[in-house]
Amino acid sequence: MGFTRLLTSLLAISGSVLAQSSTSYTDPDNGITFQGYTDTTTNVTYGFVFPSGSDSDDEFIGEIISPVANQWVGICLGGTMLDNLLLVTWPYGDSVVYSPRYATSYSLPALYAGPTITALPSTTVNDTYWKFVYRCQNCTTWTGGSIDLTSTNSTLAWALSTVAVDDPSDPDSAFAKHTDGSCHCNPFRSSAYQCSHRWCILRELLRCPERVLL
Ligand code: HEM
């Protein structure tokens, strides 16, 4: 599939038409209501709880749920690979490794300092799928870009691979180019559900069985 699908999606976005849209769902494993979508080809779900565009929060809660066939899954918070914050994740044993990256060319993205990422309870790996539930602080702006939470046109892109990273224990591991990818238009503001500020995120987390305190 590769980037035929991805480039088609990009073209669709430039034409302001995109079939895929995000919906609100509540993950029964953690009680958090996310705005997200599931790619029906790769069966990966991407969920988000963003602050409103009217406050200064620089963080969000997210989750990625993937079948084990996908050896790494990444998101581009600015909607494209280059000059944007990328969050790449992969399973390792019974945990999930996360790796913020940044690319200025179409080659292996470098590790990127800045974001503080915390794996949250309900992160899990089993025989059929892995799930990464995370808090991403200092994640809405990066060198040369940001998520425009006030925009109805913000885009999110994802890429993944069925080929494992070279050293899954190492967040700085090398890996080969994606085997699939696509774009999704504005999972941030198209929903009825908006989490307005930090207290709302806290409330969501406190609904977790594990009672996470930030
Ligand atoms: C070794 C690692 C990587 C290599 C060599 C690589 C290479 C490339 C290349 C050559 C393209 C242009 C289209 C094509 O030829 O298929 C591309 C596009 C793209 N890549 Fe990567 N990539 C890598 C990692 C990543 C990661 C980690 C992400 C996301 C987290 C990502 C997201 C994208 C996206 C969204 C596009 C679509 C076009 C664009 O955004 O500019 N890539 N990549």
Automatic annotation (TrEMBL):
Q: Which domain of life is it from?
A: Eukaryota
Q: What's the name of the protein? A: CBD9-like protein
